[in-house]
Design brief:
Blueprint: E1 8-13, H1 24-32, E2 35-38, E3 55-58, H2 70-82, E4 86-91, H3 101-111, E5 115-118, H4 123-130, E6 144-148, H5 162-167, E7 171-175, H6 181-190, E8 198-203, E9 211-216, H7 220-226, E10 233-237, E11 260-263, H8 267-279, E12 283-286, E13 290-294, E14 308-311, H9 314-326, E15 338-341, H10 344-352, H11 366-372, E16 380-386, H12 392-399, E17 403-414, H13 419-426, E18 430-433, H14 436-446, E19 457-460, H15 463-471, E20 478-479, H16 485-507
Parallel strand pairs: 1-4, 1-5, 2-3, 2-4, 6-7, 11-12, 11-18, 14-15, 14-16, 16-17, 18-19, 19-20
Antiparallel strand pairs: 7-10, 8-9, 8-10, 13-17
The structure holds S-adenosyl-L-homocysteine.
S-adenosyl-L-homocysteine binds near residues 93, 99, 176 and 234.
């Protein structure tokens, strides 16, 4: 609530769909908002940074039904603004380009409520750009016209001056559904536009499922119909449309474009893998099957008196340092001991806490760690790990006469997935498994292997995870040669490339 008692309304553009095209200002205002009134065509993650107390109000279309009436949206804006709230009115693309932002600003002015406008990346420019089509080009277009197909239905049919548009010396960009395509082409050609002028339609521009069709003004409607192009889509008419096939195609060319990949690892660890997959063009679904639950959190742990401390996962490292901190200790508590990490991820987590591990085996399994420790004299060892872990390491150390204390730092529990998340993961092109627990909990969440789509390919991080898949009657389609996230991504890429080559050969 502001000092004056009157709030402020921000008319904010959220861009065309790619979350990376939200402006810094938009993210800042979303994070500070008391109320957010949002539309349908905003990036899926746009609201992730909102405060938990913020009131989020959806004012877009329900399915194919009607939107909330504009008067009702106006009323909500005025009400929340008058109540002293910081209100973000979040719209797809740019608020002042076919977004009714101008109308809303006038209503606010009338009501005496201060407003600000935050421009966004408009879909009419961004969707062509991601399709490999610049809306202007030195030699081919020196002007652009942005045209709506969603004009006020109350207006007479003649609201668009078709002969003038046909004569426009530059690129025409239409914001509208695909239904009107035949009519538009007809009118432009009747107005004198060349039937063989290049034209394109970009569906779901800037999103992982983007598709683009390039044809001529005369053939575009038919081609779009044959390709089953659906809204939202942008139609563009002009010589610049030919540039896509002259080498400017890029977005749809990324190696995993058009593929959905489910990431089943714990949410806290999923973002790195998901980000890499998105970079490569995939739609990454974060559908965590598991969650890490620290055990005895808050109970101090004292590692003094141990001459060897073994860590078997990055999660274990995190939990260990929290338990040290609970007793007022830090990395120096490990000063006297040899510190062993099972693999590079665990080693990295230790380094992040200021400890350089003394021992990291070549292969990232318990047996390899036992080997790597073979020549070390051990009197008292601390094995800090997950609750349901194999006993290979403690048993081997005991066999060598060491006194071993095993501390269960955390357990792996099932994460809750919504029905929609489960359905999306089960139908994905790829499902990635980064541990045996992801296999077990994912299949439990789905209610069995039958739920997994017949065309879905299963990717395993290594032999232990693959064995768990086989125990459940599933054969992994892909197994990583290197048992870490980079190795898993490499294996998935190779599989996608060979399948794309095979289906290309089939089509040829
Ligand atoms: N203010 C928005 C436009 C709103 S009108 C902007 O500046 O982008 C809605 C129309 O925008 C849709 O019918 C469609 O033609 C277009 N549109 C919005 N998002 C799109 C996307 N990701 N890809 C293609 N067209 C899109």
């Amino acid at each position: 609530m502001s000092a004056s008692g009157v709030g402020r309304v921000y008319l904010v553009g959220a861009g065309p769909g790619d979350p990376g095209l939200l402006t810094a200002r938009a993210l800042e205002l979303i994070a500070a908002a008391d109320t957010i009134l949002y539309d349908r065509l905003i990036p899926a993650t746009a609201l992730a940074g909102a405060r938990p107390e913020a009131e989020l109000v959806y004012v877009g279309k329900e399915g194919r039904g009607p939107s909330m009436p504009q008067e009702q949206i106006d009323r909500l804006l005025v009400e929340h603004g008058a109540a002293g709230k910081r209100v973000v009115r979040l719209k797809g693309g740019d608020p002042f380009v076919f977004g009714r932002g101008g109308e809303e600003a006038l209503v606010l002015r009338e009501a005496g409520i201060p407003f600000e406008v935050v421009p966004g990346v408009t879909s009419g420019v961004a969707a062509p750009a991601y399709g490999g089509i610049p809306v202007t080009h030195r030699d081919r277009a020196s002007a652009v016209a942005l045209v709506t197909g969603h004009e006020d239905p109350a207006k007479p049919e003649s609201a668009i001056d078709w002969p003038a548009l046909a004569a426009f010396p530059g690129t025409l960009v239409f914001y509208m559904g695909v239904k009107q395509l035949p009519r538009i082409a007809e009118r432009l050609i009747a107005g004198g536009r060349a039937p063989d002028e290049p034209a394109a339609v970009v569906e779901r521009g800037t999103l992982p499922g983007q598709r683009t069709v390039v044809a001529t003004l005369a053939t575009l409607a038919e081609r779009a119909e044959a390709e089953r192009i659906r809204p939202p889509s942008i139609t563009l008419v002009g010589p610049v449309a030919a540039l896509r096939d002259e080498g400017l195609r890029w977005f749809e060319q990324r190696p995993l474009h058009g593929l959905t990949v489910a990431v089943t690892r714990a949410r806290a660890q999923a973002s790195g893998l998901a980000a890499r997959l998105r970079e490569l063009g995939a739609e990454a679904l974060e559908t965590p099957a598991i969650r890490i639950e620290p055990l005895d959190a808050g109970a101090p742990l004292d590692p003094s008196g141990f001459d060897l401390v073994c860590l078997t996962s990055p999660n274990g490292v995190g939990c260990l340092f929290e338990r040290l901190a609970a007793g007022g200790r830090d990395a120096r508590a490990l000063a006297g001991a040899t510190v062993a990490a099972i693999g590079p991820g665990t080693a990295r987590a230790l380094r992040e806490h200021g400890v350089i591990p003394d021992v990291v085996p070549e292969r990232f399994v318990a047996e390899a760690l036992v080997e790597a420790l073979a020549d070390l004299p051990v009197r008292r060892a601390l094995v800090a790990r997950a609750s349901v872990a194999r006993d290979v390491l403690p048993d081997a150390l005991r066999a060598r006469g060491a006194e071993v204390e095993v501390v269960d730092l955390y357990e792996t529990v099932a994460e809750r997935l919504s029905d929609a998340e489960r359905a999306a993961a089960a139908a994905a092109d790829y499902v990635t498994f980064t541990s045996s627990s992801t296999v077990r909990f994912f299949l439990a969440a789905l209610g069995g292997r039958e739920a997994i789509g017949a065309r879905t390919r299963l990717v395993s991080i290594g032999p232990v995870t693959s064995a768990t898949l086989r125990e459940h009657g599933l054969e992994p389609h892909v197994e990583a040669a290197r048992h870490d996230v980079d190795g898993l991504v490499d294996a998935l890429l190779a599989d996608a490339a060979s399948r794309a080559a095979a289906s290309g050969a089939e089509r040829a």
